[in-house]
Amino acid sequence: QAKKGGRNTVHWYSSEITEQMNERVILRRELEGALQQDDLQLHFQPIVDSKTGRTVSVEALVRWIHPKRGMISPAVFIPLAEQTGQIIAIGDWVLREACTTIAKLNQTREEPLTVAVNISPLQFTRSNFLCNIEKLLQEFSLEPSMLEIEVTEGVLFHDEEIAIDTLHSLQNMGIRVSIDDFGTGYSSLSYLRLLPVHKLKIDRSFIHEVTESERDCAIVGGIIDLAHHLSLVTVAEGIETAEQEAILKQQGCTLLQGYYFARPMPLADLNEFLRHELNAPLDNPAPN
Ligand code: C2E
Ligand code: MG
Ligand code: MG
Ligand code: MG
């Protein structure tokens, strides 16, 4: 129900919109608290080599563990945080946490495991973004190649010039960048010629029906071929079944990610997962 205002106030909000606004105001305030009370967590989802099935990288995905409401999806609070500017504080926290994790994960490993971090357009185009990253790499003594950055095509809409400059700077620093959710924006093909990026992550929506829809299958195959002609690494997100895995392997996709292999999980569980993997025989050893 719409709130009663002053005597001469005109009420044009429907109660539903008012409710949504209240909900957003509450979420926003609570998100402020979450940052102060350590209610954010990073989970990590393995990304595997399609030839060997072995984890080569993990994607860091933020979680908000709300004391009363339980886990709130980043799909809900990241867009909100982007609007309120809170994404900057969240993004800084995520980067620092990811760098801590890179150091921990690689203490005992022989083959390096990279950590990919999602960066929102606002954070990516901020003037101190590169400087922050440089400081973190130094503080944790990390090779730049251990940290990967995922951005969507949205960074180009946010500020094309700055975004392209930042991409070049990252490349010069030795930090690899992936285009996330590839295929869902609309300028996809023209900018591929220009941008110094390393990977394309094919959006989950194309993978979802890849076994039923000939069209989706053709699109996915086309993206993979195109990417490889441009010397880009391909990643398929959202693999949930063995059938989907088989098709993507057959199409030559480089890396695979999805619930079929592993869900995003806290660091302790990831360590357990990786330990298991190291002890398990390779089901499909790479040639040589
Ligand atoms: P994204 O970067 O495209 O991340 C992949 C999303 O797909 C994750 O959702 C992941 O849990 C989900 N996923 C992975 N495999 C499967 C699968 O097999 N099936 C299905 N149905 N889903 C799968 P999540 O964690 O809810 O994150 C949603 C989005 O929120 C992310 O999409 C990313 O855009 C954003 N996000 C998450 N963490 C961060 C962060 O730290 N910073 C920023 N800026 N954005 C973030
Ligand atoms: Mg991502
Ligand atoms: Mg994605
Ligand atoms: Mg996505």
TrEMBL record:
Ranges in a coiled coil: none
Glycoprotein listed as a keyword: no
Molecular-function GO term, any one: cyclic-guanylate-specific phosphodiesterase activity
Domain EAL residue range list: 24-278
Gene Ontology biological-process annotations: cellular response to nitric oxide
Plastid recorded as keyword: no
Keywords: c-di-GMP
Name of protein: cyclic-guanylate-specific phosphodiesterase
Region of the whole protein represented: 423 to 710 of 710
